[in-house]
Amino acid sequence: MTTQTTSKTTETIEHHIPSSLLTRKVRVTIVGCGGTGSAIACGLPYLHQSMMALGHPYGLDVTLVDGDVVSHTNCVRQPFSVSDIGLHKVIVLTNRINLFWGFNWKAVPHFLDETWREETDILIGCVDTRAARNKMTRSLAYGHCSYALDIGNNYDSGQFILGQPKNSRNNKCRLRLPTVAELFPEIIDPTLDEKDDLPSCSDIQALTKQAAFINQTLAFQALAMLAKLFREGRLSHHGCFLNLSQGRMVPIPIKYAGKKRS
């Protein structure tokens, strides 16, 4: 008698980048330029350079949005010096990046709200409150972007999630990546902000309540995911959970919010 064994195979669901983002300039907007946002801003030139080297015709056009100014505390964990104190973070960062790389990226020294009209392809949220996330999801920019990338953290853990908001640009997607707000609705509930005991990136308590390099680690892992998307044109995951104290990173598998057409 012979015994036949069968093995179950798990189908890997992959997301493919819209072809239009491979043939024209990709507009990126960073909302929030604290610990995580400044790391994203300083890392995006490398993504731009790699895209150009691999044949992308135009690369990235980046806009930095934040109404905050540099404080003394920011000079400890963020890429600012005492000579920057009192200046707008976005102006300092954008001028520095443009001078070094020869770019013409833009700075908007205001907080993003629902009236933000500038169209963008990738909206990157690096804010530290649910109220700020809520405003971003109700902005006109969110209503027209191809992707929304949210990055958030607490003391020594965090996550980054790439999604495709329900909007006129994505409603024709056969399969749509769910956003962080769809996966975790509480993350945009401003009434829960008072219950959070999370350090602000601009608060002096962040020096003792936030692990070193948590912002940079999340930022560079998120950038690596975007680099893979533009290099290979596809992803098998659309985010990760990170825990520095345990040395663990768990990818978020793709489970589409859209329905598959027959």
TrEMBL record:
Coiled coil: none annotated. One of its GO terms (molecular function) is ubiquitin-like modifier activating enzyme activity. CDD domains: E1_enzyme_family. It holds the Pfam family ThiF. InterPro entries: PRTRC_ThiF, ThiF_NAD_FAD-bd, Ubiquitin-activating_enz. Residues 24-229 form the THIF-type NAD/FAD binding fold domain. NCBIfam families: PRTRC_ThiF. This is PRTRC genetic system ThiF family protein. It comes from Edaphobacter modestus.
